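job 3f2a | input accepted
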Amino acid sequence: MLKTILKNVKEYKNASIAAPILMVGEVLCEMMLPFLMGYIIDLGVYKQNMNEVFKYGSLMILCAFLSLFFGAMCARVASYASAGLAKNLRMEMFKKIQSFSFKNTDKYNTSGLVTRMMTDVTNTQNSYQMILRMAVRAPLTLIVAMFMAYTINAKLSIVFVYSILFLASGLSIMMYFAFKHFRKVFEKYDDLNKSIQENVSNIRVVKAYVKEKDETDKFKKASYNVYKMFVKAENIVIFASPLMMLTMYSCIIALSWIGANMITQNALTTGELMSMFTYTMNILMALMMISMVFVMISISFASMKRISEILEEKIDLTNPENPIQDIKDGSIIFKDVKFKYYDDVDDYILDNINITIKSGETIGILGGTGSGKSSLVQLIPRLYDVSSGEVIVGGVNVKNYDLKALRNSVAMVLQKNVLFSGTIKENLKWGNENASDEDIINAAKLAQADEFIKSFPDGYDTHIEQGGTNVSGGQKQRLTIARALLKNPKILILDDSTSAVDTKTDSFIRKSFKNDIPNITKIIISQRISSIEDADRIIVLDDGRISGIGTHQELIETNSIYKEIYETQNNGGETNE
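job 3f2a | predicted structure (577 res):
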């Protein structure tokens, strides 16, 4: 885990090394101050020698300024390094998430990923900065102060050994019990972010159903769970302060008692005792800092573990060693294909699928909810991999292609139409960033989108809100179809992508596909028979198996499922959205 996090320090390695070195300089200069103060008292004040006072006083001022300089530089460099680590972690996590297959993505919810990239990375950043400064300063201060105290009086310094052992034991016990609570805190953060995300994304639905109070109650519950877990963790951590105070005052009392006796026996000078008191404060403050580092590490350790889970996630879809870059044509063969989402389940989503599709064919796919229609087409661009069998595109198994080349040759319009904030032109250029205005307009005409785009005051420069909330469902579907066409693919897959389009516009889209892109293999999934009845062939799926393949007329005569759906829609009257 730590190796995964630390390898993202990268270009900030020098700053990460410089910060502890500067901290060493600060601590050494600071630790000289009590020692010099003892000389001022014993050789200057006690003997009324002003030369000694000025001599050692000047050295104290120099050490103080050097300590200030080293400390300021250390803070600056540590901030630079920790902010750089956070930047690299977020970038690496984002890149890793972008490389996830659908199977990888299914393991994590969106709110959890957001929490990891924001809250968890921030905790790691704060912890790293603290490690570069406090985690160096505290142990070093402890060691140097102990050494200086031992130099002054070895017998008296034994007091510190007992106090350190006592405090270290107490802090270790606290950290052990606090960590498991901090781990749960961030799981509750995921629920809190999920509540916020769902509410904001679906605010129109919330208001339409007058569910503001229910959503508020849900958020209140998620927020209270975070609060409750934090309180449990903090109730353990708060014992660090009284434990620290107990140790500190016990040391002072012990030093006062033993030191006073040693002064009366001329075994210790007043200046040496004053230096010991100062070193006591330094040692105990170092222990206080160590306790703070322990608390911060306990919080960030849980965060680092969650970040590492993402960075160490094994991508189940990867390129072969020598991937094929060119896809010859849009022919598709499903050969003895079986598929299930999870290896530990028994039932297959698709079972024994055998289909041969010629390049340029138009194929319709029909079936009930859960019949495996979307799963079938998602195997073509390797959004998922088959559990067994083969999917062959252009005469080559899809696993032998370069993933980017394969997906660039397969344009897919998913069930959920997504547009991004930006202009219509910018959204369409997702299909081809180098597309000319003429290409964009031509694709929009094929998708029957040009007319409504031109009706907007800004035309193709019309701004689309996040998620496409300022266009209708049918307009959104046509824009996503145009975006897919701009890829100039060899295979075009429409996964129920005209459900919000009226039958007249749907007919125009199918007609333009037939006349203008005859060489592209077209696979159309639809619940509406009118959308696929003129396809070259129609595949009927039932519970993950092929129930029938044929033309519209052949299936009416031979397939009971298709005939029943046709009669229901034809006799009952099809409803268009």
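job 3f2a | The chain has a mean pLDDT of 83.
job 3f2a | closed
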